[in-house]
């Protein structure tokens, strides 16, 4: 916080001494008007405005909630080619990489389950991200921390991740790059945007990616392909139609299902090579996703506009996997058992959203208003085929050599089939109470219901709730603001109590207050906040009635503070940095909960263009987190000590068209566990690097 205040006041001093005009727009990218407006240089680490926190297009300083922005420039500089890499650099977010092909995320102590595309929510049915979600399609990624009662119909009071897609540009642009990295990593990427008719009223953009590699993990070999096409058609001066489609595959050979055991039968911790894997040589996990969206924007006149969006997502997964469970015997081996399974799933989601935005006059002042309706339907079906030989002991070290034979998958079957519907009405208003006072308020009224079964357990749930949002911003001067906000959110759940009655919904609340500054002609955004977040009635298994588990609702609360900054510190020096401290994360009885969540995290990413050699840019990234631990039962505690990782980069432009990027990750070759979210874990990648040759037109 001291660093935040120091930057704010040093920036205020600088700003007071300069009357330089705002920088001219130096990019031809047409950002989507529903999400982003304003100007920013192509190399910026911050953004001029966002709609990710409250439906209304506001600058970061005017937004009464904590928001971090990961721009295209930051992603390109540090080769953040997937969502795990992006969120690992983001203030207040922890990436829980529990397996090679499945990841959870947390913020402020709670799971992140809200993901949006251009501000339209995509309900999650599993609470995690499967596969390797590529970031080449996105102009930037916004992360709003805390409950997001206006933008999200349901969810947790953790954070909302908003992916903002690339759009066609006004002029022809093209780029291509080839990356070669450690463990035979090869990546090719292309991005072309051009007008499609002589007048330029129709323009299109195509992004293509092929990425494949071996891995530091034995036998594991991931591969993905991405194709994205989008067309903008100006039907009139006031009407814009946008249609896009994404095809993305993530095909993984010998992935891990589950991870490594963390202790021996004598209670001492295991310590494997970082390459150790429990996967079988025949294992695979393939995910294929098709996503189509259409968006219509129309200006109604007098500052009013309407937008309608529809998304359809079709995702399929197919896998044959080996799970290894049990407790190994130290120095002898054995004690681990096989659980092979074949799994297939289908998920179809349709999302629709319509909103109206505009300005109105009241009391001699102009105010902002947004209202609308959203609807979603998710259908999920999956089938598990269990392999012969479940429970077979894997003697010696055979659990780690990949030699377990592929069985026939006909021992038993099980699966799921359920539907989820959500309907939401929302209203948001920003009242200009005085020249230096703004009040942002609104309501979100949602009905959510589900039906069907999953592995013999009902998925029925039905709940309705109206959640409020209120935030106030006071402009201390033209650069510095103080704010406070309170938001709520809820999430229905299908778990039942001892009487078979579904539990009431999870309810989340976030209250925060802080300072925000936009410095150096809005090139640098700095914020500091204190927050309190509560999540009540989360289902926790409490026992069994016969063979059926029953649950009880438990409460948890986190408190803390954070600092976040992004943008240009001085000419040629870009930085994105943040520190989060959870001073408390406790349950009903004051006990520590979610001990796998680090109580303190630091993220720093910075680049500097050398004045004497303007073609050369150098930079580094630092990520640090405090100690985490998990109670394994029986008096055994697994601990991952605090650690820091360092990354370095260098970018050299040979000419205006050709450049070379060198990246080195985990420079100190630190060995650490990726997560303690589960009672198993795996090791993070050791020191590795890549070289990327890029061409642009």
Automatic annotation (TrEMBL):
Q: Where is the TonB-dependent receptor-like beta-barrel domain?
A: 245-667
Citing just one GO molecular function, the answer is:
siderophore uptake transmembrane transporter activity
Pfam annotation, one family: Plug
Cite the PROSITE patterns for this sequence.
Answer: TONB_DEPENDENT_REC_3 (PS52016)
Write the record's keywords in alphabetical order, separated by commas: Cell outer membrane, Ion transport, Iron, Iron transport, Membrane, Receptor, Signal, TonB box, Transmembrane, Transmembrane beta strand, Transport
User: A single GO CC term, please?
Assistant: cell outer membrane
Predominant location category: membrane
From the Swiss-Prot or TrEMBL record, give the protein name: TonB-dependent siderophore receptor
């Amino acid at each position: 916080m001291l660093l935040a205040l120091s930057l704010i006041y040093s920036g205020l001093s600088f700003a007071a001494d300069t009357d330089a005009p705002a920088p001219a727009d130096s990019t031809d990218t047409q950002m989507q008007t529903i999400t982003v407006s304003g100007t920013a240089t192509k190399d910026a680490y911050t953004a001029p405005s966002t709609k990710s926190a409250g439906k209304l297009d506001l600058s970061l300083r005017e937004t009464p909630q904590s928001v971090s922005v990961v721009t295209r420039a930051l992603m390109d500089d540090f080769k953040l080619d997937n969502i795990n890499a992006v969120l690992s650099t983001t203030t207040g977010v922890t990436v829980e990489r529990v397996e090679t092909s499945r990841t959870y995320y947390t913020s402020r102590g709670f799971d992140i389950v809200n993901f949006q595309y251009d501000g339209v929510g995509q309900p999650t049915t599993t609470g995690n991200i499967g596969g390797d979600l590529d970031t080449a399609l996105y102009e930037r990624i916004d992360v709003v921390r805390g409950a997001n009662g206006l933008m999200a119909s349901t969810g947790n009071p953790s954070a909302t991740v908003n992916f903002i897609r690339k759009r066609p540009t006004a002029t022809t642009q093209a780029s291509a790059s080839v990356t070669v990295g450690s463990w035979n990593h090869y990546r090719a990427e292309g991005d072309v945007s051009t007008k499609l008719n002589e007048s330029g009223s129709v323009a299109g953009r195509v992004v293509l990616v092929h990425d494949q590699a071996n891995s530091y993990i034995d036998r594991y070999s991931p591969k993905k392909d991405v194709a994205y096409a989008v067309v903008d058609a100006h039907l009139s001066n006031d009407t814009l139609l946008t249609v896009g489609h994404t095809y993305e595959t993530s095909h993984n050979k010998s992935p891990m299902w589950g991870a490594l055991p963390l202790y021996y039968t004598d209670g001492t911790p295991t310590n494997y090579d970082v390459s150790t894997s429990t996967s079988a040589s025949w294992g695979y996990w393939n995910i294929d996703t098709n996503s189509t969206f259409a968006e219509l924007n129309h200006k109604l006149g007098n500052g009013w506009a309407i937008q309608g969006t529809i998304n359809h997502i079709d995702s399929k997964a197919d896998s044959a996997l080996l799970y290894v469970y049990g407790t190994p015997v130290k120095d002898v081996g054995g004690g681990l058992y096989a659980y092979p399974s074949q799994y297939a799933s289908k998920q179809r989601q349709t999302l629709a959203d319509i909103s109206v935005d505009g300005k109105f006059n009241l009391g001699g002042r102009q105010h902002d208003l947004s209202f609308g309706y959203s609807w979603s339907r998710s259908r999920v079906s999956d089938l598990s085929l269990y392999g012969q030989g479940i429970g077979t002991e894997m003697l010696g070290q055979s659990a780690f050599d990949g030699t377990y034979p592929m069985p026939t998958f006909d021992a038993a079957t099980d699966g799921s089939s359920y539907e989820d519907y959500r309907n939401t009405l929302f209203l948001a208003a920003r009242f200009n109470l005085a020249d230096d006072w703004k009040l942002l308020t609104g309501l979100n009224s949602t009905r959510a219901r589900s039906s069907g079964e999953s592995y013999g357990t009902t998925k029925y749930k039905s709940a309705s709730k109206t959640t409020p949002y209120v935030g106030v911003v006071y402009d201390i001067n033209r650069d510095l603001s103080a704010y406070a906000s309170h938001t709520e959110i809820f999430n229905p759940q299908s778990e039942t109590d001892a009487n078979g009655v579904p539990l009431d919904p999870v309810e989340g609340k976030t209250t925060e207050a802080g300072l925000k500054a936009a410095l150096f002609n809005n090139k640098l955004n700095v914020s500091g906040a204190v927050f309190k977040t509560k999540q009540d009635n989360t289902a926790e298994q409490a026992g069994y009635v016969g063979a059926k588990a029953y649950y009880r609702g438990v409460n948890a609360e986190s408190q803390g503070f954070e600092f976040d900054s992004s943008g240009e510190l001085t000419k040629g020096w870009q930085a994105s940095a943040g520190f989060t401290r959870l001073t408390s994360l406790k349950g009903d009885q004051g006990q520590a909960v979610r001990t796998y969540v680090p109580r303190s995290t630091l993220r720093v990413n910075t680049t500097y263009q050398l004045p004497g050699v303007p073609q050369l840019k150098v930079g580094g990234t630092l990520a640090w987190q405090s100690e985490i631990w998990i109670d394994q039962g029986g008096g055994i505690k697994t601990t991952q000590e605090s650690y820091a990782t360092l990354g370095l980069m260098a970018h050299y432009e040979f000419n205006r068209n050709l450049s070379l990027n060198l990246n080195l990750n985990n420079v100190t070759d630190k060995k650490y566990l990726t997560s303690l979210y589960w009672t198993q874990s795996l090791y993070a990648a050791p020191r590795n690097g890549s070289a990327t040759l890029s061409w642009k037109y």
